[in-house]
Design a protein that fits this description.
Blueprint lengths: L14 H13 L5 H8 L3 H7 L8 H10 L4 H11 L26 H14 L5 H5 L7 H8 L9 H15 L7 H21 L44 H15 L5 H7 L4 H9 L6 H15 L5 H17 L3 H42 L1
Length: about 375
């Protein structure tokens, strides 16, 4: 005789969901977990834990458990999403929204847009980044994870966003025709918010030779973070003179920026979720960093020093970064070069849309004046 299950603790975070699963199993005649395991392909422990209340099972496990007990996939997808609602943005709580993917139409700012993108991931069954990376074209797993990271505050690139949207919808609805209207909705929202983001806060910072003094006659001193074990920029190996000139020029600029933080490589690597050895390679020229690392470093220096950012600085560093990529011959460098070209096109698109909107507004204002004249 099978051992009876432990009672569900009322304080368990997913107690209500577990009660529903157990009730469904009881209505199916209380099949043994070994029988369910043979039918679903999941282990006894996984199925038993799904109905324990302490952890929310994955959507795949939920579907398998429910259908093996006679439940319908759509109903249990909705129940799973209701159980996840504490993790969802406010604008998708409640309602039978699971039958269609959440869109960015309600996004009033970048934070809302990113919340919508994360909600779409949950709608698709919250797949792992490894699984999602197989459906996002040339984009890497790390790029995908960074775009969906809870700590992110800026818009990811348009190309990456559209590939993530395509990938998530195809994961949830494999084989179905993709709705271009839905993709257009994401594209239009991105362009609209990108124009606002670039107007309000440009991705700018200062480099060592353009930082103004804090006051007349006063030398600006960076506020150093508490030092921990690990090498500072002065303790890194010297830049190899044999490096290609574009790579050497970029590396020297990055080291100059990093020195302003007054922090060890190990501490900064932890702060930015990087491997310390990878950071050291970026700062020695042995590996070319992605543009995302460069702009993050620029922003960190600007934030710490509180200096007025300059557009010329970012433009110059972008030019150096692109020249370094063009001088490299590795496949990863060629991919980063393509990503940089896509980013430039996205910025041009956002700028064009902004100019168009300003022109339309001016025409409308002029027409209204003529009518009232």
């Amino acid at each position: 005789m099978a051992r009876p299950e432990k009672p569900i603790d009322p304080q368990a975070p997913y107690a209500a969901f577990a009660h529903q699963l157990r009730k469904l199993r009881d209505s199916a005649g209380s099949p043994a977990y070994k029988a369910l395991a043979r039918k679903t392909g999941y282990s006894v422990a996984t199925l038993s834990q799904a109905a324990s209340g302490w952890r929310l099972p994955s959507l795949e496990v939920t579907r398998a458990y429910a259908t093996a007990c006679g439940g319908t996939e759509q109903h249990w997808e909705e129940q799973w999403m209701i159980a996840r609602q504490d993790d969802l943005p406010w604008f998708i709580h409640g309602g039978a929204w699971s039958t269609r993917p959440p869109g960015p139409g309600t996004a009033a700012n970048v934070t809302d847009f990113l919340d919508c993108l994360r909600a779409l991931k949950i709608w698709a069954g919250d797949p792992s980044y490894t699984m999602l990376a197989r459906h996002v074209g040339m984009w890497s797993k790390s790029a995908t994870a960074d775009a969906l990271a809870p700590s992110r505050t800026r818009l990811p690139g348009l190309g990456l966003v559209l590939e993530i949207v395509r990938g998530l919808v195809s994961l949830r609805r494999p084989g179905e025709a993709f709705g271009e209207a839905y993709l257009t909705e994401w594209r239009q929202a991105w362009v609209r918010l990108a124009a606002v983001e670039r107007t309000v806060t440009r991705r700018l910072a200062v480099t060592p030779h353009v930082i103004p003094p804090q006051a007349a006659g006063e030398v600006s001193t960076p506020k150093a973070l508490p030092h921990t074990s690990g090498r500072t920029v002065n303790e890194l190996a010297a830049v190899d003179e044999a490096l290609p000139p574009p790579v050497r020029d970029l590396t020297v600029e990055l080291r100059g920026l990093f020195s302003l933080l007054g922090v060890s490589t190990r501490r900064y690597a932890r702060r930015r979720h990087l491997d310390a050895s990878t950071l050291s390679r970026y700062l020695s020229g042995r590996r070319l960093p992605p543009w995302g690392f460069v702009i993050t470093l620029i922003d960190d220096v600007a934030e710490q020093r509180g200096s007025q950012p300059l557009q010329e600085t970012v433009a110059r560093l972008r030019s150096l970064h692109r020249a370094a990529l063009m001088s490299a011959t590795t496949a990863s460098s060629r991919v980063m070069l393509l990503e940089a070209q896509v980013s430039s096109l996205e910025e041009l698109l956002a700028k064009t849309v902004k100019e168009r909107d300003a022109l339309v507004e001016a025409q409308q204002t002029q027409g209204a004046r003529r009518r009232t004249a």
